[in-house]
Amino acid sequence: MxxxxxxxxxxxxxxxxxxxxxxxxxxxxxxxxxxxxxxxxGFSPPKQLNSCRFQVKNRRxxxxxxxxxxxxxxxxxxDYDLVIIGAGVGGHGAALHAVExxxxxxxxxxxxxxxxxxxxxxxPSKALLAVSGRMRELQxxxxxxxxxxxxxxxxxxxQGVADHASNLxxxxxxxxxxxxxxxxxxxxxxxxxxxxxxxxxxxxDNVITAKDIIIATGSVPFVPxxxxxxxxxxITSDHxxxxxxVPDWIAIVGSGYIGLEFxxxxxxxxSEVTFIEALDQLMPGFDPEISKLAQRVxxxxxxxxxxxxxxxxxxxPAKDGRPVMIELIDAKTKEHKDTLEVDAALIATGRAPFTNxxxxxxxxxxxxxxxxxxxxxxxxxxxxxxxxxxxxxxxDANGKLMLAHAASAQGISVVExxxxxxxxxxxxxxxxxxxxxxxxxxxxxxxPQAREKAEKxxxxxxxxxxxxxxxxxxxxxxxxxxxxxxxxxPDNGEILGVHIFGLHAADLIHEASNAIALGxxxxxxxxxxxxxxxxxxxxxxxxxxxxxxxxxSTTPQSVKAAV
Amino acid sequence: MAxxxxxxxxxxxxxxxxTISFASSVSPAPIPSLRxxxxxxxxxxxxxxxxxxxxxxxxxxxxxxxxxxxxIVSWIKTEGEKLAKGESVVVVExxxxxxxxxxxxxxxxxxxxxxxxxxxxxxxxxxxxxxxEAEIEEAKNKxxxxxxxxxxxxxxxxxxSSPAPAAAASDGPRKTVATPHAxxxxxxxxxxxxxxxxxxxxxxxxxxxxxxxxxxxxxxxPPPPPPSPAAAPAPTAKATTxxxxxxxxxxxxxxxxAMQSAVSKxxxxxxSVPTFRVGYPVNTDALDALYEKVKPKGVxxxxxxxKAAGMALAQHPVVNASCKDGxxxxxxxxxxxxxxxxxxxxxxxxxxxxADKLDLYLLSEKWKELVGKAKSxxxxxxxxxxxxxxxxxxxxxxxxxxxxxxxxxxxxxMAVGASKPTVVADKDGFFSVKNKMLVNVxxxxxxxxxxxxxxxLQTFAKIVENPDSLTL
Lengths: 563, 472
Known about the structure:
Largest sheet of chain A: 8 strands, mixed
Shape of chain A: globular
CATH topology of the largest domain in chain A: FAD/NAD(P)-binding domain
Radius of gyration of chain A: 24 Å
CATH class of the largest domain in chain A: Alpha Beta
Distance between the termini of chain A: 13 Å
Helix content of chain A: 25-40%
Domain Pyridine nucleotide-disulphide oxidoreductase dimerisation (chain A): 430-541
Helix content of chain B: 10-25%
Number of strands of chain B: 18
Largest sheet of chain B: 6 strands, mixed
Main location (chain A): plastid
Function (chain A): Lipoamide dehydrogenase is a component of the plastidial pyruvate dehydrogenase complex (PDC).
Shape of chain B: elongated
Largest interface: A-B, 56 and 50 residues
Number of domains of chain A: 3
Oligomer: heterodimer
CATH architecture of the largest domain in chain A: 3-Layer(bba) Sandwich
Strand content of chain A: 15-25%
Structural class of chain A: alpha/beta
Strand order of the largest sheet of chain B: 11-18-17-16-12-15
Number of helices of chain B: 10
Binding site for FAD (chain A): 126, 192, 217-219, 396, 402-405
Binding site for NAD(+) (chain A): 254-261, 277, 350
Number of helices of chain A: 18
Strand content of chain B: 15-25%
């Protein structure tokens, strides 16, 4: 299982020449997205929190009575069964699952619980996008009129919007912390590092031992050379999420999902946007047909222009009465192409792993461009190509698939393994979403990837498509713009990939991702019933539109083959 | 009910006869798959080509069996753009979906017959494709002669440059910087972005600059964030939507030309500046005598007055200043006198740059050149928008006095009336007849105060009354 990095569709990708460019069965996408386990949200209202805590405590007692020691290491020679370095979404997912499996678990956090996703990533950005979606709707007079609604000019208060984002992050962070505390996970504060096999240091000089160790230290925004970030006019997503200003004109370097989402936010709030993309087309990580449509809807009609096939070789913040200056060079010839003058620049060129100071030299592990090498079971590989026993790395730090929910899934997979059940995560079943208006979501292979694979392995590929224009619910919402596309094998009904662009696409993808994860075939799932009228019928139509040669299995349960 | 509506919404999709299937195989497909619709196919339409000229019609394709007409969502290509076989040209909305329509031939999109947002029946020509660049014109003529059915292509405003007596003295040659929206609008309204004067931050061209150049009213842009988080209703552009009085039945409506729109916009903008006026009688006997002398050498009265104003401004820089932000004086380093000129159906203000420094003869030459350019609409932006002070003369019509509106971005404007023989009494009580001309200056009182203006006018009067310095 091989995969590309989140950097690949931003300009940085081309500056990192060693990256495996494409691997046949992998590189599902180079997007990182965010997902939280349901537990994180289950504790939100205080009332519920108390009751949950109570219940959980009861359960712990019961379990310890039964299993003879949840809360105490099963092996007396270690302080913990499992220590996780990094309390982001990946570490959190692993910790919850570990407790469920009866492991005595500690989690080490050097910054804030929740990591990038909750504090500086997907969570606050969803708050901003919620605002931008509403602004967009209220500003669209035509759209409102078609509903028979009259709205006087919509306005916004920047600080109010920014507060919404930071309040949401705080709330989710507290939920996350409480969910771990409630389950009895020890939260240790301080930077964690590996001292040696099964030995971890945190803070100044606290040393603990653990049977197994998971590294889940995540990533930080990647800033290419020549770009001077001042946090005011030249910023990364870390700064942008605080929404300290709404510039008249902002250049966004990188048209991946981070850049796209911010373009949605900024244009809704009145900014004009210029994209700078190193590859020859915008949104290179997406299925070409989807990115074409997305460009038509998300880029062309908005106050956005773009430069493709160029690097921002030098960006200087605004100072001395001069605007932000951006030098563009040709991505291939490296010749100077243009100089842009804008009010601000957002660097969205992907993310770099945060693995410095982890003490990896103590166990003879060499990072590859910062990423910690792992096998398909997330076991860390050392400098000699050997597995390091009892050491795992999940999430952005291993770079397999830089998505919060992928990190969490990897963490759960590791816990499954250390508790005696071999498990290999199918990365092709991990969905991804981009929360623009409308949303983009995807799972599995893109059409070109599927065709390449089909050619190699000698099978036929078919495409099914449905339009949101034919969906009653979408039309009721006046949101008929959208497309769902499925790539599948007509011979056996295997789903290879599903791509959706349209209203609530991010929520619609899971029917497909679950089908891929469980190995459900089209001929079976097409018989399942969907409520009418719902957007989910878009996906239903997709299954029904497919032409599969093999008949439905007589008992749906018999289809168990892994994809 | 639920069941039947479900059927309705899906029936046509699963109709096996539909020509464009939503599930098409990627393996060798004889039918064009969804979103790969091809027009101008030589065999499918009788109407295509009796290859007399190599101009092909682009038809509204039938995207589904139920489709009778289609709406143009957008033209991906613009007129005159080169097309390669297989490229998407236009997006058509059918009853089901938006689909890209691709060209079957190489060539040029010569003319768009059915514009964006308009509908045309299946099979109707929506555009013309020329094989070579040379045939574009021919195709255009053909398109023009076509009785455009329901589709009325709004003729784009002529690509004239903005004649706005606009603000912002640009100094020196500069790279054009235009915002993304400005570029989009320029393309949409066929405005040459290079000819637009930028008034945005750092002199960049903003959307409103392009709109002014294209002669359209600025759209009500997304409201700026209200200054306070309080729920005070945002004072938005409500005022602009006040209803106009009803039209009289026989009235005909003639839309503004680009230039007229620009004038209108500037005039409305001027209302936000607190102005005041000071008049001054100037004795012109000496000036008239000088004028008679230099007239054979090609000197015009305009040049004389501009020169006099320029020299007076040099001594009173505040009258040559402007107030850009309501907080500060912007002193201009050059004295550029804009002179209002009436041209057919419009008004423009060519600028005599460095009016204080250039000698009278050069100034006169320059003026002739500018007037010539103005009449043929050849003025470059810096030749009409770099003024720091404006001169308006209606004396030649016999107007004895009038009052000018201060153009945005400048500190003062001078309105010059006719010079007339006037009976005056001198200090000893002797009557005599002298030529007197009334000069009335309108100024921005945020930066120019009454005494400033009076002193300036006094200097101006002295120069005009002792005009020898003008010829130096």
